[in-house]
Specification:
Two copies of one chain form a homodimer. Chain A is an alpha/beta fold. Helices cover 51% and strands 12% of the residues of chain A. In chain A, strands 3-2-4-1-5-6-7 form a seven-stranded parallel β-sheet, with helices on both faces. In chain A, α9 links the parallel β6 and β7. In chain A, α10 packs across α11. The relative contact order of chain A is 0.12. The interface between A and B is large, with 98 and 97 residues.
Chain lengths: 325, 325
């Protein structure tokens, strides 16, 4: 119980000195979404903005967790600190994170220059995106040079979070089934960098050439005249390709910092955060203000006396969105 | 251009007579989300409520599309009509559906008693859930006895839609990788019926016994004293298990219609629809009303002069959620 009494202010001071326990506690408060920690989060946000935020996404089975582990080890070799925010799909009932993949990262856990956080995928409406990006701020303000957001590349909300990174890495693996390939198509075009994992496998060349022809056909949106989306073959088994991957990451980080297109994208990411946060607050307030009516209106809907739109309009009745001037 | 002039009212009349073209056009109007078709959707909603709505979900590679095809063929043998709403993850840029899996259903396409619709996964905030459930209404009102909602079992928004069905079937397959198994854990507990697909494979017994021990440990939430969640092994290759699956589906349909717990769950589904629709409308109106301020506030956020919460509060400034009495 004593632990809960630590003020958010003192946690901020300690987090800025990269105290792991303080960072973890601030992330938990951010996840809880209570108003008390907002001034602390605002202080961290003001100090943040230096880290290179990398979104790593791919379908289940693409090997992205192994890639993240190996990449983190290689980045650590240069002395840079690496934070990892893993956004895992969670049970809609328990609200807990799935820790399965994280076990592979055990070799990193004892390293003081690495901070790993699994985020529960909280209620929809921006809660997950909001809390994940606040966790990124904590690491960024604490001076971590790289912050990796790892998300599963399936699901609207999940892909949206990867898109809030400066650099989006989409991981493909050879030999996945048809179902999985079909889903993959939805995320390929958001890549700034393509990685083909498991390139020690003989069928990796097919995956690499498929991606390259897709890029030639101009199906990539992440790329532009100023940034050519590369395809990087890697193997976590033998360490191949990670030097090239780090070069590409640093190259894209420079592109984001120094180009007008990069700066414009950073402004769009800020707009995305602002809207997610506003929608999260609006949603909470709407639900709170309508608690008394929910049962009555949903009973009428359930009996089909009114339609879903009519029910919705009853709940929204009288809300004035124009605001006061 | 002429086609666009057909009134929603005349489409409703034709859809109630199960005219496929009229049903498809109403679904497109529902997806577009324009206000004009709401009276038509309200009429359909008032006529709906008889179909057994079945959510079928599973991780990529679980074989759920093949299962849906085989199940549909078996249900058709009894003369019942079957509608399929497939909610596929789509590109965040193109907004289009992925049709890959649907190809397997070609044998069903020529059957007048089967209607298949792939939904684009539109913007977040209930748009996808709202439009998918409106498509269910169209089929329900047109007298289809079964409506299957097929969703990929990864992603908050996607799983939420499966949960709006009367009966939730979670499909597991033997021999999937670690990454996929970890994700699967998040949806297992929402099952009313577990299906183990590909049970002609030798490693299927392991998957079946894993699910059964999980159920024994009481990890299932879908089950209750009144409904014991069954584990049904199926094989689309040899047709095994589909008779048992249909018995379980019909048994759960009866449970939903006849038990107080089932009726309560139907009320909760109505409440979910109402809230999704309200949030969708609220979100659209909020964005429309704030267009003029977005650029100014997000520029301040981007420069870190204000925090995401402060930016959000500026956008929400003056919104009165209490409503007029």
């Amino acid at each position: 119980m004593m632990a809960a009494l630590v003020s958010s202010d003192s946690l901020v001071t300690r987090a800025l000195a990269a105290d792991n326990a303080a960072m973890a506690r601030l992330m938990s408060r951010a996840e809880a979404g209570t108003a008390e920690c907002r001034p602390a989060l605002a202080k961290l946000y003001a100090k943040a903005g230096r880290a290179h935020v990398i979104g790593i996404t791919g379908v289940p089975g693409s090997g992205k967790s192994t890639l993240v582990s190996t990449l983190t080890l290689k980045l650590r070799a240069s002395g840079k600190r690496v934070g990892i925010i893993a956004v895992d799909p969670s049970s809609p009932y328990s609200g807990g994170s799935i820790m399965g993949d994280r076990i592979r990262m055990s070799e990193l856990v004892s390293d003081e220059g690495v901070f790993i956080r699994s985020m529960a995928t909280r209620g929809a409406h921006g809660g997950m995106a909001r809390a994940s990006l606040e966790a990124v701020d904590v690491l960024d303000a604490a001076g971590f040079e790289y912050v990796i957001i790892e998300t599963v590349g399936v699901g609207q909300a999940e892909v949206e979070i990867a898109r809030a990174a400066h650099t989006i890495v989409v991981v493909s693996a050879p030999g996945l089934g048809d179902d999985i390939q079909a889903i993959k198509a939805g995320i390929l075009e958001i890549a700034d960098i393509h990685v083909v994992s498991k390139c020690d496998r003989s069928d990796a060349n097919r995956t690499i050439s498929d991606l390259k022809s897709m890029l030639t056909m101009g199906l990539s949106v992440g790329g532009s005249r100023l940034w050519q989306t590369p395809v990087v073959p890697t193997s976590s088994a033998n360490g191949e390709g990670f030097e090239q991957l780090i070069e590409c990451l640093d190259g894209h980080g420079q592109f984001m910092r120094k180009s007008e297109a990069g700066q414009e994208r950073i402004r769009r990411i800020a707009e995305f955060r602002m809207l997610k946060t506003a929608e999260d607050l609006l949603h909470q307030r709407f639900l709170n203000s309508r608690q008394g009516e929910l049962a009555t209106v949903s009973a009428q809907l359930s009996d089909r006396r009114i339609s879903p739109y009519q029910a919705a309009e009853r709940l929204l009745n009288g809300i004035n969105l124009q605001g006061t001037p």
